[in-house]
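Hello forum,

I keep getting stuck at the same step: I have a sequence, I want structure tokens, and every attempt I make locally crashes halfway through. Rather than fight my setup again tonight, could one of you with a working pipeline run this one for me? It's a single chain of 254 residues.
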Amino acid sequence: MKRLFCVLWCFLGLAFSANAQGDDFGMWYELGAEKKLSKKWSLGLEGEFRTRNNTKTADRWSAGVSAEYKLTKGLKASAGYNLLYDNNAEELTFNSSGDPKKWTPSYWGIRHRLNLSLSGNVDWGRFNFSLRERWQYTYRPEAKDKKYAFTYDDDDYLSGYTMESAKEKSKHMLRSRLQVSYDIPSCKFDPTASVELFNDDDGIAKMRYQLGVDYKIQKKHVLSLTYRYQHVNSNDEDNEGDCHLIGLGYKYKF
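Reply #2:
Ran it on my machine without issues. Output:
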């Protein structure tokens, strides 16, 4: 257990020292369950809570279900659905005169997300290398009366406002993740490292780098600790920026 606290301390040190440079910092809390139905089929459930703004602001609640099928040795296919309940950040735009044009206060809204994945892995000694390709589709329904659109008279004085809806929006994303893990002899800790690219119509939207460790409590219970750094190249539906993330997770396998 002392080793786990040492790893946690190192991850927190990485996050807070990097956060001092101006990037955001958040926490991800994850719960999951996995049921093996047969040698080829398995089902999964997951729940997640995220924070942003240096953990001061609740960012997202989500719940999802997934199914996985083993095609052959070292090759799996999966499909999943997630219901996302997001805290959309405040937005303010200005007109050419420098006056506020539209204001969208922070609000909570629902998104639906589907994904299809194909992943392969190969062992090399005690190392395991895996590559996952995932197509992801996200749909945000229209949210009525969320935007204030301001109007001005000829003297540029504010004369009133109208309410507008946040329009429905959909987005396709291709996520490519390369991961390596190491099986330490006679140890319950399994370290992993990965890099993931998020590709949309404009190219690489963001990159996510991750270091993590899983701790097995018997065979059914797994605790996880991760450090993630996320670099964003363009705005997406998550309204994300560069950030450092600490993740704490628990999964029950049966």
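The longest strand covers residues 107-124. If your local run keeps crashing, start a new thread with the error log.
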